[in-house]
Design a protein that fits this description.
Blueprint lengths: L2 H27 L7 E3 L6 E3 L3 E2 L6 E2 L4 E3 L5 E3 L1
Antiparallel strand pairs: 1-2, 3-4, 5-6
Keywords: Signal
Length: 77
């Protein structure tokens, strides 16, 4: 592929990422959160749902790409 084609594809990817981030910020301001995020009543921000115990194990589970921190909360990897 030529450098022009690769640059154009990279530009498209960057624009899509910016549009998605802008869309999330607008939804958060409007009080809406995309799953698996939920509205935190204390801060008003979209956060990952609290970690839930897995039925098959005694460990906690969080949706990907999040993991459980030492406090039992889901945080982004």
């Amino acid at each position: 592929m030529s450098k022009v084609t690769l640059s154009f594809l990279l530009l498209i990817v960057v624009l899509q990422v910016l549009l998605v981030k802008g869309d999330d910020a607008a939804k958060e301001k409007a009080g809406l959160c995309r799953p698996p995020l939920v509205k935190d009543t204390a801060t008003g921000k979209c956060i990952v749902r609290a970690a839930q115990r897995s039925s098959s194990k005694s460990s906690f589970a969080c949706p990907s790409p999040w993991f459980v921190n030492g406090e039992g909360k889901c945080v982004r990897a």
